[in-house]
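ok trying this again, last paste got cut off
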Amino acid sequence: TLKQQKKYKKMQLLKNKLQYRNYSTNKLFNKDDYIKSFFVGLFDGDGSIQVNHWRSTNLQFRLVIKLKNLETNFNMLTNLSNHLGGNIKITTNFVLWVLNDSKTIMTFISMFKKYPLLTEHKRLQLAFMKSMYEIYKKDKKLALNLYMNDRNNKFNPNLYLKYYNMNYTLMNNYSSIIYPNFKYIDNTNTFEYHYFNSWFSGFTESEGCFVNRTSKDYSFMIAQNDKKLMEFIKNYFQITNILRLVKNTYVLETYRKDNLKLFINFFNKYKLQGNKLNQFNCWKNYINNK
């Protein structure tokens, strides 16, 4: 009935207001900022920026996030899709968020100007896509030749300077990250601060782990193959544990009670949205009842 529909809509609005209550009074950072920042963190961890060819005659552009096929992950990607666009696809083992249309993708990735990707790997993938698309629009044959020659060299930052110097592109589409020198302090009210915290929540959905051991030796762990980013995370949260290199991946793990309490307070404020939310709630309950 119309009355029930109005009641449901009111409940949904209340739910959203509660979920993002930390930003309701912050003009610098609102619900839209939170969702986009969270998305970029998730994308930095489990996303892919793809340029492919079809029978060597056309270039195809694609954005993908690929997660385990769990109801919580499906719900998270569906919510992100409803807010940002994109399609949801399900296979036996995975749920995917996908964007295929090249013009839509070019509009979508403009979001990364305000909400930058923080992993070097993704920034180079983005530079390759932007360069290929720009060249492809002007000279299809040249773009296809460059793609075939350079697709295995796309993680070389000098490639995009070369494209610019050769007048293939109007600008160098790659830019490195200079991480700010700041620490996590609760209630600091700047856009950059809230952006990184929401980004980190999304990134944790991909690369974080809340560890419960039978020995009651609990820990929080985050891992990524980007050393500079991992050093920034370590310094930002003032974690004294060393970065461990395990099979080309840098692992940061902390067992200290004060750090664990810090992350409990952090994720209570900067909400996880997918399967890691369940992990976090179980982990938090174990620690609080320890």
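PB: full thing came through this time. The beta strands are 47-54, 58-68, 87-90, 94-99, 208-211, 219-224, 244-246, 249-254.
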